[in-house]
Design a protein that fits this description.
single chain, alpha+beta, five-stranded antiparallel β-sheet, 3 helices, 168 residues, elongated, 43% strand
């Protein structure tokens, strides 16, 4: 007898949460990996949780004993992913690895460099790559304001955090 495995559910566009809610209401165990994304809403950048695999989630089933027919008619769901007639299954070890990576990505996104006003930073990427600037302030979770000396003139520039490193 086969134990419970994870199976892939195809959802309607932007309906992952609806599918999860309705599948769980029916007693299914689901997992929809999420990642933190930067989205511009009302002229400001915000951190939002988005599905790691848009339009897909996982459901834990015993394919031999569980009735899978309600899944297809669940609100938010298109159906189970299949290869021919076989329902696509994912080994537990793969789902565990995805969970670990999801946690790692979330913790990385919550870390913000501890720069202080006046710290010298080097720009590693973008149009100002190679220049050094002075940290003025954090503008958002993803951008900082730097003071750069360009052609003898001091100018303020907003630079993505991931372009920067502490100057050596």
């Amino acid at each position: 007898m086969k134990s419970h495995d994870w199976y892939v559910v195809h959802t309607k566009p932007r309906q992952e949460n609806v599918a999860v809610e309705n599948l769980e209401r029916q007693g299914f165990t689901t997992y929809c990996p999420l990642t933190v994304q930067a989205k511009r809403l009302r002229q400001r950048w915000h951190k939002v949780l988005e599905p790691l695999f848009p339009r897909y989630l996982f459901v834990k089933l015993n394919i031999e004993t569980d009735d899978i027919s309600p899944i297809r008619s669940t609100q938010g769901v298109v159906g189970l992913v299949r290869f021919g007639r076989e329902v696509a299954s994912i080994p537990e070890i793969v789902v565990d690895a995805i969970r670990d990576k999801e946690q790692e990505m979330r913790s990385e996104n919550n870390q913000y460099p501890c720069w202080q006003k006046g710290d010298e930073l080097e720009i590693l990427d973008g149009p100002f790559s190679g220049l050094k600037g002075i940290f003025l302030k954090k503008e958002s979770f993803e951008r900082v304001l730097l003071l750069l000396d360009i052609l003898g003139q001091e100018s303020r520039f907003s630079v993505p955090v991931h372009y920067l490193a502490a100057s050596r």
